Amino acid sequence: MLRNKKIILGVCGGIAVYKAIELLRLLSKAGADVHVIMTRAAQEFVTPLTFQTLSGNPVHTELFNLIAEREIGHISLADRADLCIIAPATANCIGKIAAGIADDMLTTTVMATKAPVLFAPAMNVNMYTNPIYQENEDKLRRFGCRFVAPVSGSLACGWEGKGKLAPPEAIFEAAVSALSPRDLIGRKIMITAGPTREEIDPVRFISNYSSGKMGYALARAAQLRGAEVLLISGPTALPKPDGVRVVNVTSAVEMQNEVMTRLDGCDVIIKAAAVADYRPKMRSSTKIKKKADSTTIELVKNPDILAELGAINTGIKRRPFLVGFAAETDALVENASKKLKEKNLDMIVANDVSQVDSGFNVDTNRALLFFRDGSSSDCGLMSKDQLAGTILDYIITHLP
Ligand code: PMT
User: Fold this and answer.
1) What is the pLDDT of residues 110-155, one digit of tens each?
2) Cis peptide before 303, with omega less than 30 degrees from 0?
3) What residue ranges line ligand 1, CB within 6 angstroms?
4) Where are the domains of the chain?
5) Domain 188-398: which topology?
6) Which of 351, 348, 330, 328 is nearest to 339 (CA)?
């Protein structure tokens, strides 16, 4: 979502400047073209060379730099930006911008830009709670600026309380959110993710290698685009995506119950979960002891949740747009097309899980998308975050 986006990173003076370096690293890793502006005070903590080396772009420190002025002009950065982040943002900088003061490169650029502006404040707790500061923040919020609130902890000034710069990851997430299209506002999307576990006894189960990464990437991307997201998740080690309602389940039958009782009002259902096709017929209530040289566990078929959803015609106001996944090691096109038809889906995402960089428990995926109308699209190799965005792009074009 940040690929090729021009981001201005304004850095004010404060001990938290070192966290801005980590933020720059996250933004650059995500493909953003970051241009750093440092205030004079920021340069007391870290030299511009650090930011210049990591961003690959010259760092701006002076409002009237003769060389930069000739080459780009001091306003052009503001014109070209997709987003302006100020982190750490001091009370002084926020106060000046709220008052319309533009007396250095950073405040001038923020005042001149039409891009969204995101402040990540860091300051002493008493400065943060001071009504003058709070009024300035409120004023900037009213004008559409975004804020990532500081967190509580022991502050560099010796005080305990709210004022520490938010973690770079949280600022990064807010940046992604600021640049995401809000084209799913008003849509309710249910997503299933992760594996199911079918218990054999209290200490053993049948499962698969699903990490939940694909389903969680979809949930996060849909939430960022404004959807109300319900994530029905099998057991994973992933953190709950911000702003997403998560319902945890263990077995396929539990997943079936949660999906079927919550589908009313859903515009879209995406089934990225790797549901176990079978479960042990009997679950032993005590640990099964090792006795014979070999043993047999009788399995019975689990409900096919996706097929059940595809068969729904009545009982809910309207049929949601139904997206299945197909994890295949062979005959990808034939198997996925068959599932699309037999399960009565609107779209299926076919993954080739025989490749090491695709499918289960990796950060990337290779997918072919097939649609009810017979059309298809080859997404090639991409990160699961990128694929999630692409899948949502296609879904949106098919929604009524
Ligand atoms: O979780 P990750 O590590 O990120 O890995 C991602 C993934 C490989 C799990 C994901 O991309 C994926 O392919 N998910 C579907 C895996 C799967 O179970 O495929 P399948 O071909 O067996 O099932 C087809 C579809 O029917 C799936 O949408 C599945 O959720 C659904 N199904 C299957 C069986 C069942 N009993 N009920 C179902 O609803």
Assistant:
1) 999 999 999 999 999 999 999 999 999 999 999 999 999 999 988 7
2) no
3) 194, 210-214, 252, 271-275, 277, 302, 304-306, 324-327, 339, 351, 353, 359-361
4) 6-178, 188-398
5) Rossmann fold (3.40.50)
6) 348
